[in-house]
Amino acid sequence: MIRFDNIPPEVMQAMCTPMHQILPSSSAYPSHPSSSCHSHHLGPLFLGSLTAAQDPPLLRSQGISHIVSVLDAPWAPTPSHLEREGFSVYKIEVGDEATVDLRPYLEAVCANIEGVRRMGRGVLVHCQQVRIFADFWERHKRVEGA
């Protein structure tokens, strides 16, 4: 039996919530004066569970059109049903375990996340170890100066 006796309410809520918005939609302005004078819209970024990644109505309700998934397990669902529903799936087929070296994938996946957000579209990152998201977040903070 799972017990929640010693878990703070906010932690229990986070554990039971399939998806968390990490970066909201926002307007970004050109960083260089010779750039277009129009601002562009950045899409939101979410971190979520496998349940959230397999729920097209939930994804659409949050403006998510792209899913980044780090999961290679015999029981893992294939991205084909999401693609048939109109979602783009960036799948990294490696074991989502602390011992797996994700460095060879990080540059490309971070560029993918940022590119999708710059198109004004939402991204859901699903990875059990959260390392893909953590690397993207560190890069985002450096770029934004946060």
TrEMBL record:
Domain of life assignment: Eukaryota
InterPro entries for the chain: Prot-tyrosine_phosphatase-like (IPR029021)
Entry's Gene Ontology cellular component terms: cytoplasm
Keyword Hydrolase on entry: yes
Gene Ontology terms, MF aspect: MAP kinase tyrosine phosphatase activity; MAP kinase tyrosine/serine/threonine phosphatase activity; protein tyrosine/threonine phosphatase activity
GO BP, one annotated term: negative regulation of MAPK cascade
Alphabetically ordered keywords of this record: Hydrolase, Protein phosphatase
Coiled coil regions in record: none
Protein name per Swiss-Prot or TrEMBL: Protein-tyrosine-phosphatase
Species of origin: Agrocybe chaxingu
